[in-house]
Specification:
Number of strands: 3
Number of helices: 9
CATH superfamily: Rhomboid-like
Shape: globular
Largest sheet: 3 strands, antiparallel
Helix content: 55-70%
Distance between the termini: 27 Å
Strand content: 5-15%
Structural class: mainly alpha
Strand order of the largest sheet: 1-2-3
Length: 233
């Protein structure tokens, strides 16, 4: 059972311009990927984060500035419709209130910094992997971590699928996001004992690293909107 967040119930006081911009850019890059056809695999290998490139001089076939840039470019690449739709849904649900809380520029910093931290954790945990890591989930996990700190009691309307039955409930953010992080951690811990250098799959440690970075930054950054936020009924 995978809970699917649909919306939160925080009354925001500013328009979520950066969140919207990030969603638009992610979709624009995704449509660009679709236009590449047979060249897409080469593009992903070139711009995805390949951990072995960062720890092995024999594989450092690209200029250092290029591989550093790949950490940022990879945040906007996705492997399919389910990948990007899932990521953008989470960004939409949780990003708007975090942007309102910290302001546009600090929110963008939190997003990008969490994406970088997520990539570095993936490199550290699986340094021999030659599989490219792509996706916005590390950066978005940072947004989830910040939300976990800033709005633990906020109610999230969540879709609960169970076989052919679907229903919606309002779950406290601390419960929903705590459950999400626990799943990532348990899966990531299990994968530590499995050789993944030549296999694809979910980069669990990207999620863990991004989430923890978001938690830390939420504790460090100064909120633009101080005081409790109002919730709608």
């Amino acid at each position: 059972m995978v809970p699917i967040p649909l919306t939160d119930h925080i009354r925001r006081r500013t328009f979520w311009a950066v969140t919207l911009l990030l969603i638009v850019v992610n979709f624009w890059v995704f449509f660009m990927e679709l236009s590449l056809g047979p060249q897409l695999n080469r593009f992903i290998m070139l711009y995805g984060v390949v951990p072995a490139r960062y720890v092995s001089t024999s594989l450092f076939t690209l200029p250092p500035r290029f591989t550093i840039g790949s950490i940022f470019v990879s945040m906007f690449l996705h492997g399919g419709w389910l990948h990007i739709l899932g990521n953008m849904l989470f960004l939409f649900v949780f990003g708007r209130s975090i942007e309102d809380r910290f302001g546009h520029f600090q929110f963008l910093f939190l997003y990008l910094a969490s994406g970088v931290a997520a990539a570095l954790v993936q490199i550290a945990v699986n340094p021999g992997s030659r599989v490219p890591t792509i996706g916005a989930s590390g950066a978005i996990a940072g947004v989830l971590g910040a939300y976990f700190i800033c709005f633990p009691s906020a109610r999230i309307t969540t879709l609960i699928p169970l076989f052919i039955i679907f229903w919606t409930v309002r779950l406290p953010a601390i419960l929903l996001l705590g459950y999400w992080f626990l799943i990532q951690f348990l899966a990531g811990y299990q994968m530590l004992n499995i050789q993944t250098a030549t296999q694809g799959g979910v980069a669990w440690w990207v999620h863990i690293g991004g989430f923890l970075c978001g938690v830390l930054l939420a504790l460090i950054l100064r909120p633009v909107r101080a005081g409790p936020m109002m919730q709608t009924a």
